[in-house]
Amino acid sequence: METDASLNSNSQLQIRFITKQEQYSVPDAPFAVQANISTTQLNTLVNELIKELPNAPETAVEFDFIVAGELLRSRLSEHVTERGVSPEGVILVEYVERLPAPQPSDCLLHDDWVSALNARDKWILTGCYDNTLHLWTVKGKHKLTIPGHTAPVKAVAWVSVSDTMASFVSASHDQTAMLWEWNVATNAVECVHVCRGHARGLECVAVSKDAAKFATGGWDALLKIWSAGVHSASDGDDGESVSKKAKHEGNKSQVRTPLVTLKGHREALSAVCWLRDGAQVVTASWDHTLRTWDIDTGALVSELCGNKSFFDLHVSPLSGMFITASADRHVRLYDPRSSEGSVVKCTFTSHTQWVQAVRWSPTDQHLFISGAYDNALKLWDCRSPKVPLYDLMGHEDKVLCCDWTIPKYMMSGGSDNTLRVFKSKTYPV
What we know:
Blueprint (H helix, E strand, L loop, with lengths): L11 E7 L12 E4 L4 H12 L12 E5 L2 E2 L4 H7 L7 E8 L5 E7 L4 E7 L2 E6 L4 E5 L4 E5 L6 E9 L3 E8 L3 E8 L4 E9 L5 E6 L5 E6 L4 E5 L14 H8 L4 E3 L3 E3 L6 E6 L5 E6 L3 E6 L5 E6 L4 E6 L6 E5 L3 E5 L11 E4 L5 E6 L6 E6 L4 E5 L8 E3 L6 E5 L5 E6 L3 E6 L6
Parallel strand pairs: 1-5, 14-18
Antiparallel strand pairs: 1-2, 3-4, 3-5, 6-34, 7-8, 8-9, 9-10, 11-12, 12-13, 13-14, 15-16, 16-17, 17-19, 20-21, 21-22, 22-23, 24-25, 25-26, 26-27, 28-29, 29-30, 30-31, 32-33, 33-34
């Protein structure tokens, strides 16, 4: 095996190009290239080969290259040496069309910090530190300002959306979650259930995939599961009907109590996500742990331990992998299926201050975004831990929340009172 020192500018490596994008597939014969070949030079070489294809593109295509499971971000000789790849054999170089840079699309102004965010279909729901909720279209038109909470709103989530009616839930530092119903046609909204049970402020909320339940967590270190149904014949401790209770309370809101309360965390819950089977949820906490719970039995299924307080967690809807934001400048990747689940599989380092929010792409198992106190939203490929794909700039203060539920829109809210929307060219309107 050649040593690092011997892989100089005069050395050569044998490579073979492979791709999953069949329209760009080239003959798989090995090529001899200079060991210190750059990604720019590899791009030129692949484009020359593509010109010979029957349906060759009219213009040059920008590619990224994957070697030994990671995106090539240095010269090939450095990359293979760092990853222990033998320079004696034929090195497989996978090429994929480079993701275009997302473009700034909208800046939606609020009256206070934007601390909660969730999009669905053509609607955006935000929550603020001035205790209000806001409804917007994805085109940037403001539909409603919704008062109701008596303390900052820290989390929001859509429950259901149709052409005529929608429902959503909000969680606040006022110790309540509120379940809302919105008449889309008349643009009228009402709080139909006030969910009481937490003893301290709420930090997170998540709705199950079947929209039957939602989970909340907060500063009392408790995980609570609630019914997400908007209409029911009776609810609350005394079972009074909605109309009877409304007469007593002077409004249509009905107090709802939790279906399940799970104890185990020692400090505040900062994030909660439902797993794909719908029977389990995973929670992140300031106590440095990620815990997976079985909702039906109330049992703790597993626990992953970190060395920092977790600020956010998101589970990939495609791969089931966990990404986390912590009280430092790193994003971490965990594989919950691993027998060594507590071991961080990858650390992504580019932010210069605490990372506050993370979200996976809904359509690509390799992509995610992260927002931090350095005012930046970053787009990552999990095969490139040292360098993000793009820095999505625009915020003038800390990023507090982000969302990537709609494939073509990456969004972030911050303490500069704005919601920033970035549109991916991969998903044209």
